[in-house]
């Protein structure tokens, strides 16, 4: 803006002879300025140049400009309302599980991700999985602060012969250490958040497919 | 009432500004314009600040060009109200840096800034024009279109269809996107082929093209969830192609596969991206190696552990380079190489440096774990729990991460299966649209200490790919198909992107791959580039690598720089049918 002001100041001294053009600009007629026609190229034949065209009061109808400004004001109001509404809305509860079942080249293949509900007991969930003879290959804990905001996730990839409970115990031990080291001052807590089962695991087909619900947060 | 004198002085100012801002043209990259683009450095700027209710246009001509595009070093306008347009179909508002326009087929391209009646800002600055004079014909057509959802409601679900009877492929242009990240989506699907993996667009961006969808009809669905709304989205045009003769990448030769084009036509566009100089590597990052930071009991046995923490952050412009379409994935992978040890020290490195420094836990080990280079079979492969061989590649380890839930996945390749000479760990990102700029992301892997080595070679690689539906793919080893990780950098047809390795010759070993930030080659002659407990490495936006032996010391330069700021054709090798080939000078 400072540069423009300076140039406006300088230009006052050379206004003679251009009043016709300036009038034209006031009536929304385009002004063209040709400049920069240097022949510099790798093939010595291509000319790159640029022509400026500047139209002020760009709009044939003054009424339309006014309407646009009214519309803009409305949008700004809507934006304020939207922010207010968003801050009032509470986060929906998590769904229990998602499952996808696929068939690859005629070979049954399944993937299931269980999202543990906020009010679910993690050991009950694991027990139900054990009852179905399902082997988990990834478990994730969520560490949250005092207000329930997520701090980080702690996971174990457990494609091993240990039981689901043994793997969860190992994960919990490491999670506790992480909280002690880095999040003690935030009064952090943890809970089981995700259980993933991938592969041709026996009995996975007993679960009904549940898509990730829109209310899932 | 506006004084006419104001217009008079304003007019002269504009004329002078034109001369001030458009008088600098010079040669930048000299290459053969018949096969590669020529880039001219220019200085074409809008007035700063621009004025209200104005059309500020630059008509840029490259006299005998067959296609051309312009590069904006900066665009800064009132978001959602003042737009920069190009005749190549682009439009942007808000603040962006380092943006190339789409290619315009012809020799005269127009750039316009159209402003509304209130609030002004910087405008734009064009600093480069790139053009080709080789035989090129426009292979696509454009049509205006108007779908918008501004200030949408919760629980919306609406569909639109675009059909072009003669089209071989269609894509749409989003003038604006502002949807609740990860929960409200515009989903674009092909009506011609159900195997095509859709774009699921969300988050906040301006001026975005969708993927190309083969066929003559697409469906656009908008779905919002039950809470939290945002501004919405505007689709203002679409493009379609009626010929397969184009630089549209879908030949088998390019992908070295027969099915990638069936899944997503943008698969294998790494060559095109690098030709566009779209560096998507994180601008900043840090790697920290530790030993026994945690107490790990595996199957009730205390086992010594090692950990590696990988931190990384994208600037808005690098993230924009990464997230071009609606289904990009990203893996930022730490690699512990497991190679046949040489009979004597090689490049000054001890023999033990060739063994993997961090490995997965052996659930039946007691105190000591040694990495032989073969995975722990355990009893995972019992008939009850059988995986396909390709899936049984992960073993046992812990991780910590702040990467968003449900947008991430743990991924490890075992030495004996896919890669054969690496232990690779990564927390992959399923949907790169879930990443935000200027946020420090990290993951930390806790695995077993390999008693065979205390100091070893390692690598760090960022790999961009596409999230394909593995249900529609033939049985493959990965769900997420990555198109920038082919190992063979010398054969044509692979989508390998290399940059010349500093201080070495142009021989094969003198190349490193674009996605590698730290390579095992870096440890040649530089023993400080081996990983060991306590050591840290960091890099910056230019690819300069620093290190220190522990976090209490100050950083030292490793002497390694990737010169990301100076990419040009003499540094790049792209083994695809697209993009510039290296030029012999």
Quick gist of this model?
Helix content of chain A is 34%, strand content 28%. With 217 residues, chain A is an alpha+beta fold.
Overall mean pLDDT of chain A stands at 67
End-to-end C-alpha gap of chain B: 63 Å
CATH topology of the largest domain in chain A: Dna Ligase, domain 1
Please identify the structural class of chain B as seen in this structure: mainly beta
Question: Which regions of chain B have little confidence, pLDDT < 50, spanning 5+ residues?
Answer: 1-35, 246-263, 379-392, 470-479, 486-494, 576-585
Total number of beta strands of chain B: 38
Q: Rounded to an integer, what's the Rg of chain B over CA atoms?
A: 26 Å
Q: What is the helix content of chain A?
A: 25-40%
Structure summary, number of beta strands of chain A:
7
Q: Of all protein chain pairs, which has the greatest interface, and how many residues does each chain bring to it?
A: A-B, 105 and 111 residues
General shape of chain A: elongated
The CA-CA distance between the termini of chain A, in Å, is: 45 Å
Main beta sheet of chain B: 8 strands, antiparallel
Order of helices and strands of chain A: HHEEHEEHEEHE
- Global outline of chain B: globular
Q: What structural class do the secondary elements of chain A suggest?
A: alpha+beta
Radius of gyration of chain A: 33 Å
Number of helices of chain A: 5
Helix count of chain B equals: 5
Question: What count of structural domains of chain B?
Answer: 3
Oligomer: heterodimer
Helices and strands in order, then pairings?
The complex is a heterodimer of chains A (217) and B (585).
Chain A: H1 2-11, H2 19-26, E1 31-38, E2 48-55, H3 62-88, E3 97-104, E4 107-115, H4 122-131, E5 138-144, E6 150-158, H5 164-182, E7 189-199
Antiparallel strand pairs in A: 1-2, 3-4, 4-7, 5-6, 5-7
Chain B: H1 4-21, E1 26-29, E2 38-45, E3 55-62, E4 67-76, E5 83-86, E6 91-92, E7 95-100, E8 104-105, E9 108-114, E10 123-132, E11 141-150, E12 157-163, E13 169-179, E14 185-190, E15 199-201, E16 203-209, E17 213-214, E18 217-223, E19 232-241, H2 252-255, H3 260-263, H4 270-275, E20 284-291, E21 296-298, E22 301-303, E23 305-313, H5 316-322, E24 328-337, E25 358-359, E26 396-401, E27 408-413, E28 422-429, E29 441-449, E30 458-467, E31 480-482, E32 497-500, E33 511-513, E34 516-518, E35 536-539, E36 544-548, E37 556-561, E38 572-574
Antiparallel strand pairs in B: 1-2, 2-10, 3-9, 4-7, 4-8, 4-10, 5-6, 5-9, 11-19, 12-18, 13-16, 13-17, 13-19, 14-15, 14-18, 20-23, 20-35, 21-22, 23-29, 24-28, 24-30, 25-29, 26-29, 27-28, 30-31, 30-34, 32-33, 32-38, 35-36, 36-37
